[in-house]
Design a protein that fits this description.
Largest sheet: none
Order of helices and strands: HHHHHH
Number of helices: 6
Helix content: 55-70%
CATH superfamily: MazG-like
CATH architecture: Orthogonal Bundle
Strand content: under 5%
Oligomer: single chain
Shape: globular
Distance between the termini: 40 Å
CATH topology: Helix Hairpins
Number of domains: 1
Structural class: mainly alpha
Low-confidence stretches: none
């Protein structure tokens, strides 16, 4: 299922089927899924803990570490898909709308090559 030919709908169905086959719907509420996302994100951060920036290329090219990173990213995405299923969120629309907000908040002529926290209300 490569990214180029797999839809979000297919991934959501894959996750929904996995949950349904195990009767896990009772555990998959918004609170538990949001907590699971945070926990998996922390596990992803552990992969990079205490690694200096100049060591990142070597770290991420190591097959064993890369596999662990891939698993953690997949765990996060699976729980995001499950949360979208539970809350009936349209992820494509949500991302498109959020990117429009981000584009307005961070115009390229102001933020190209640099970042600073915009003042409130900007």
């Amino acid at each position: 299922m490569p990214d180029e030919s797999t839809t979000l709908a297919q991934l959501r169905r894959l996750m929904a089927d996995f949950v349904a086959e195990r009767d896990w719907e009772i555990y998959h509420d918004a609170k538990n899924l949001s907590m699971a996302i945070a926990i998996e994100a922390a596990e992803l951060m552990e992969c990079f803990q205490w690694v200096r920036n100049e060591e990142l290329a070597a770290l991420t090219s190591d097959a064993k570490v890369r596999a662990q990173i891939t698993d953690e990213v997949a765990d996060i995405l699976c729980f995001v898909l499950a949360l979208a299923n539970v809350l009936e969120l349209d992820l494509s629309t949500a991302v498109e709308q959020k990117m429009a907000k981000n584009a307005a908040k961070y115009p390229p002529e102001t933020f190209r090559g640099r970042y600073f926290k915009p003042k409130r209300g900007e």
